[in-house]
TrEMBL record:
InterPro entries with a match to the protein in the record: AAA+_ATPase, ABC_transporter-like_ATP-bd, ABC_transpr_LolD-like, MacB-like_ATP-bd, P-loop_NTPase
Domain ABC transporter, chain residue ranges per copy: 15-252
Protein name: Uncharacterized ABC transporter ATP-binding protein YvcR
Signal sequence coordinates: none
GO cellular component, one term: plasma membrane
Pfam families: ABC_tran
EC number: 3.6.3.-
Keyword Repeat: no
Name of the top EC class for this enzyme: hydrolase
Keywords from the UniProt entry: ATP-binding, Hydrolase, Nucleotide-binding, Transport
Length: 255
């Protein structure tokens, strides 16, 4: 299934924020992590979020994914306003509509790769579509490893299991927090290739926080954060152009 993108057609928004502010702590210890961010994340696109350390990347991702409460503003996934949901509704929405990939893989050590991949569906009381499951497994190259436990897999293979787990329920959007942060360059490339293919071939929507310009080079669009604001964006990025832009942001931030 390749998603036809009609040239010139308006982008469909998968998730968006309106005036999203997040303040941690109080008084002298107060930190404004996000200072009123309004941003739209397009469907069927691979978006990277970059910026100097402490610029608010993880906070933006956590708030957009409904993992963290906002101080002010609104967050939408599709047409649903997350910030208006009760905790139970939010948990159900995260389970049914959002996929997550973390730097630390977060696999269950006692379960096989296959069981890990199917766990979110089992929890939701759903069965995988066999053809889709097979397609994901073959794309991610894990067919021979399905019976293995995480400790019997390399870091790159474990992260590919985590990617398959995020993808198998066909979520509306996947949030990936530095998914290649613990991987060597070859494994990173395999994981990024897979994420790229899942956007291009399956029409998946992925938002990825990364420090790595090479990883950003796999995406369609980079959002640059500084001091809790989106300060710039780049379409069809290359690693070199991202590196250059980051150098300016880092020197402005005094890093
Ligand atoms: N739980 C918390 N309590 C207090 N301050 C926090 C908390 N989480 C984050 N912050 C602060 O909010 C700001 C933004 O943090 P965030 O983790 O979003 O940045 P980041 O861009 O993801 O950083 P990094 O690249 O280092 O992971 C930072 O100043 C951080 O110290």
């Amino acid at each position: 299934m390749t998603m036809p993108i009609t040239p010139g057609a308006p982008a469909v928004v998968a998730a968006r924020t309106e005036g999203l502010a997040k303040v941690y702590g109080r008084g002298d210890a107060q930190v404004v992590a996000l200072g009123g961010v309004s941003v739209a994340l397009n469907a069927h696109e691979f978006t990277a979020i970059m910026g100097p350390s402490g610029s608010g990347k993880s906070t933006l991702m956590h708030c957009a994914a409904g993992l963290d409460a906002v101080t002010e503003g609104k967050v939408f996934v599709g047409d649903v306003e997350l910030t208006a949901l009760k905790e139970k509704e939010l948990t159900a929405l995260r389970r049914d509509k959002i996929g997550f990939i973390f730097q630390a893989f977060n696999l269950i050590p006692t379960l096989s790769a296959e069981e890990n991949i199917l766990l979110p569906l089992s929890i939701a009381g759903r069965k995988p579509e066999q053809a889709w499951f097979d397609r994901v497994i073959d794309t991610v190259g894990l067919r021979e490893r399905l019976g293995h436990r995480p400790s019997e897999l390399s870091g790159g293979q474990q992260q590919r299991v985590a990617c398959a787990r995020a993808l198998v329920s066909r979520p509306e959007i996947i949030f990936a927090d530095e998914p290649t942060g613990n991987l060597d360059s070859r494994s990173s490339r395999e994981v990024l290739d897979f994420l790229r293919r899942s956007v291009t071939e399956f029409g998946q929507t992925i938002v990825m926080v990364t420090h790595d310009p090479v990883a950003a080079g796999f995406t369609d669009r980079v959002l640059f954060l500084a001091d809790g604001q989106v300060v710039d964006e780049m379409r069809n990025p290359s690693a070199d152009r991202v590196l250059e832009r980051m150098a300016h942001l880092d020197s402005a931030a005094g890093v």
